[in-house]
Amino acid sequence: MASDRLPRDPLLREAMNKAARAGAQARPFIHLRVHSAYSLLEGALQLTKVVAHAVGDGAPAIAVTDTNNLFGALEFAQKAVKDGVQPIIGCQIDVAFGDENQDANRGYQKRAGPELFPVVLIAATETGYANLVRLVSHAYLDNIPGEAVNVTMGWLAQSQEGLICLSGGPRGPIGSALKSGHPPLAESRLLALKALFGDRLYVELERVAGYDRGVEAATVDLAYRHELPLVATNEAFFHVREDYEAHDALIAIAEGSVIAVDDRRRLSPDKFLKSPNEMVALFADIPEAVDNTVEIALRCNFYPKTRHPILPRFAGGDVADADAAVRAEAAELARQAHAGLEKRIAEFGVTPGFTPGQYRERLDFELGVIERMKYPGYFLIVADFIQWAKAQGIPVGPGRGSGAGSLVAYSTTITDIDPLRFSLLFERFLNPERVSMPDFDIDFCQDRRDEVISYVQ
Fold this sequence. Notes:
The chain has helices spanning 10-22, 47-57, 73-82, 126-141, 153-158, 173-179, 183-197, 213-225, 244-254, 276-282, 287-299, 322-348, 356-372, 376-391, 407-411, 449-456; strands at residues 61-67, 86-96, 116-123, 151-152, 163-166, 201-206, 230-233. By secondary structure, it is α/β, with parallel strands linked by helices. Strands 1, 2, 3, 4, 5, 6 and 7 form a 7-stranded mixed beta sheet that branches. The chain is elongated.
């Protein structure tokens, strides 16, 4: 493997170097079509098993491409990185080509809604990952309510940068058109994808029991005719072949059916995580398709990483100077909290056995902890939208969970529970020994909570 093709990220570079060192032993193959359990009611692979499979096979990388979502992307990346495997992040997403009538003269039947075909999009760069997130969001948020989750070719055109596209195999837009006897439609779809992705488009081949050799031959012919690379995949939904019957029960449940019903969706028993040797043997006549799985991994140099929460600056201070901003926010929080406490005491008095001075002492203690942990901005943000909701007459819960133990929260009307009256501990909510983001449990009236969400946005 040429060093100039290796990813910039040190972890990914080491993973690919490991593959190079193992190359003398066997031709490497990398799975690019793995459905984890996050492919809801479809995949049955826990992410730990996906990573363990790569480790066990000595594979330098593995991809998770769940159906129409990225739910497991961050968790998968963390687990893979921990075990020294390059995580490849992708998504199998349904695309509406909008060409249902294009081949009408040849008997192509238009359906009631848009016909959807799966393609696989893989994030090669950070820009590609951002575009993939954007496309998945489009699929859920910008379609007609009740319509199946999908993206349009127009959305793909706007967000294709940094993405590698696999053509979807036999069920994809090209394979489906060829199987239904419409080669011109298959070619037009392939050219449409090539126009968007260029050399980032790979024509996907999959060989499971009973696969259509005629469709594969036509697919290979199209790829060669338009100078597009082939890639071998095996869409995996379960771990080993012996898991097939259990997985078939899952599919029956997803279909609202029972195992004994013949006329329902079934997957091939070959849809498991095959070993590199099995895949190399399966595609012995087209070795380039196996080699291109490694090429795709080489082209991927990004995976999502955990990040600390980034809160907007609430009050004062130079944004570039974090400490100055925290001090300004701490001063504003102290001002609001002291004013709020005096108002609470004037309205409700103090708990028997306590003095106003003890209330102020507890308040100052909490404010000191909040400032040291650099969370005054968080309290100000939460107080702001709760105060706004109450001013609009939107019912807000009095407070629950550990946040009810904060006198600062009570003073700024985040909660309406006096923690001293009920002997609630602030330390259960926030303390320097347990450094984690504070978390207020807040209840808004279900009829108007959308107004609060809009205000926060």
